[in-house]
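Much of our argument rests on the idea that a fold can be written as discrete symbols. The amino acid sequence and the backbone structure tokens for this protein are reproduced below:

___
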Amino acid sequence: MENTELLCEILPSVTPRADIINGLLAQLDDEQDSDRRAEIIRKLGEYPEPQVIKKLWDLRNNLENESDDFVQYEIKLSLHKAATQKVLTPIGIDFFLDNLEVFQSKDNNSQAPKVLIDADLIEEFLLRNQTTLNREAARVMGLVLEGKINPYIGEMGLIKIWHNIKNLKSREDANRSIIELLSKINVGQVNLKEIDLEKYPNVNLKTAIQVEIARKYSLAGIITIRDREFIASGYPFVGSPALFLQSLGKDTSPASIERTLKNLGKAAMENEKVKLNQLLENEPQQNLFFEDNLLLFQGWKIENFEILCANNNLTAATVILCNTKTQERYTESAFKKGSVDALCTAFNEALAHLVEVKHTLKSIYLANLTPGQEGDTTVKAVVEYDGKEVITIHTHENILKAYFFAYVKAMIAVYAPKEYHPDIHSTKELTYLHKIGERDFHGLNFSQVNLMDGEANLSDAKLMGCNFSKANLLEVNLTNADLTGADLSHANLSKANLTGANLTDVKLDENNLTLLDGTILTNTIMPEINIEISGESRLEKVGQLLKHIDPQSQSRILAVHSMTDCIWWDNPLGQKFWEVNKELIKRGISIQRVFILPEVPTPKHLQVIQEQLNCGIEVACICHEKAKNVEEGYRWDDTNLLISENLSVPRNSFTARRTMNGQTESGYISYQTRVVETDKSIFNALWEKSEKLSTQANIQEQLANLST
């Protein structure tokens, strides 16, 4: 009775609902008497509000702290009541998403690697038992619960988990699971309107959203049981639970986890190679070179074809198609003036029995003819279907077979793309076609070409989506080539000329360094790459890239140099880099540099600054103590920054940074737009707060107020 009277005192009928709840929660925190605690908890169960459910859930998870069995019973009963009763509608996933700020942990200061855990993996952990997949999911979730992984989940994944648990078990189970997940896992949210889905032409929406979440929150990687669906996304740090755990080994420290995530893309690639090799060993790939078994598609093959030339200038061609299972046959003939025309027409007539023929042959022609009576010939066929072009190439010692097989390949690619196995084309095929003026090779596979010993001219070529993986492109002329979406992984691009080339969305290997190894990149539309590179090699790459700047491109250099120690400009590396600076000034490229100085600059500092001013560099200076305030908590006295901004071709802009942490140096070269813009804003902030120097005044006087 005493408890009831107490509640009446604090819950007058005129008190608003929120005040009632806050009053109960405050009283519960202060109350030590078990009977009174039980009464307050029972009353809280009547209010299905987010803060009430969160409080009851926290009490439920810490039952051992309640010594009274009756209080424990009231906690369970009130949680059940609050989480299941209807207000306007039953409590469901929308309730939790609308109140994330209540249910998400507010003290997440974890230094563990941030990882997106796919909802499918979490479902395996929550709903299945005693399966290999579940054991792997359980080990990954174990790392989450141990605090070695800072986990994230996409909002759509959370919704899917709630609905599946609700359908398989109950609404109460679903609500309980979501409360538990929200207490342990961060929810990543992206605005669909802000996602450029054209970046993901071969990826489903769910996968694209997860990649965007990983990029938005700077996650170290994604662990998913759907790892194959991410292959076409271009996101490298994805792996299955099995691959992740196998790569991780026994060392489960956060540092080891982060290192493993960085290598996931490479490990996945090696894993797929092993699977592919096993597949090829067990089931050799069918190839059109096997003329006695010339497979078409859907169980049909070309059983026979023949050409007959008559005296009346007409050519007769016959094509026989045969079904390999039923032995059903279609035989069609055509009469045309040309042999190739007759053969392709007869094939079209036969093909019409299998599919509705809707393609148009745009061109089919001979690319080369080796001098003499013997030798291979290369034919290229271009077919248009449904507004898209399909290109196929075939090389054969028989000129008519070269024409016919190139055309047949195009038909397979058009009408049965899933059964089409693109050939790996040879160096000769590529160079022959280019020599006769053919520039369109999009989508073809040249992974084995070696252009080192040839003329190596692919200027103005259309190479969109081509496969040049492991190709030797040493010193190749690729000026103005369009390589959008091409695979350049592990290709040798040393000293290749990529002036004016388009490298949007190209696929590169894990370090991307081959792209910067002596390659000429003047006004090149670069991919969004970020390369971790330190020391002398980073400086050499930066110097090389600066030398390639086109004076007509309206480029400028923005730089920050920490000169608390000025010895660097006198060492061989510093002198070499200074020569690059002077060459840029001579070519009319402006340089702005902020020097971060000690509180009392030495004569040597002043000498370096005077030399750069005299050379034509715009110079500003700031004391290292003032520089610390530009970006809170960042030590600019240990950082150098250089941004090459190309105003004519913005995608050719890059940034480079060096950071010292004690004796440890780290750094990067980045063409990622986000990184370039971030570094540029930092430079602008430093430049604005710095003292601008002039060659017309005494530098020592200008720097007199540097530290005040």
Notes: Confidence is low (pLDDT under 50) at residues 1-14, 279-290. The longest strand covers residues 300-309.
